[in-house]
Specification:
By secondary structure, the protein is α+β, with helices and mostly antiparallel strands. Helix content is about 60%, strand content about 15%. The chain has a 3-stranded antiparallel β-sheet with strand order 2-1-3. Strand 5 and strand 6 form a beta hairpin. The longest helix has about 35 residues. The protein binds zinc ion.
Length: about 140
């Protein structure tokens, strides 16, 4: 068997499997099996990971606000193109043989495609911003 219990405080090894208190430094409940001690050492690795993550988090700190701006911009673009973008053009009035042709407004195909492009791009931007904010949230949670 050998010495399989180790004091977490002073590092003394003992063969007494049932002992909980260290007989060298008298620390209470400081004895852990060596497997357990490995687990206890892991938080140090986690600290390093957290340090690394805090650097990463700083890098991503601006992401949520950028994502929010993209979402708002996308939604505003959709609202603008869907509701306020005028696709109609004025048709000049021409008088042919005493009859008035034209007048009023008709929808312009080019402007209509501009409008649908604008809506699609706006929706795309909003979705992109949404994905970005989800990524930013998951990065800050890690
Ligand atoms: Zn000890």
């Amino acid at each position: 068997m050998g010495k399989n219990r180790e004091c977490a405080k002073c590092g003394s090894l003992t063969e007494d499997v049932d002992a909980k208190d260290c007989k060298f430094c008298k620390a209470k409940a400081s004895l852990v099996s060596r497997e357990v001690k490995k687990e206890l050492n892991q938080p140090k690795k986690q600290d390093q990971r957290e340090n690394h993550q805090s650097i990463m988090t700083k890098k991503f700190a601006l992401l949520p606000s950028i994502a929010a701006l993209i979402i708002i911009g996308g939604i505003l673009a959709v609202i603008y193109f869907a509701m306020f973008f005028d696709t109609s053009v004025e048709v000049p009035t021409t008088t042919v043989f005493g009859q008035t042709i034209g007048g009023g407004r008709v929808n312009n195909l080019g402007l209509m495609s501009d409008r649908s492009n604008g809506i699609i791009i706006g929706i795309g931007a909003a979705i992109f911003g949404l994905i970005l904010s989800i990524v930013a949230k998951s990065k800050s949670k890690e």
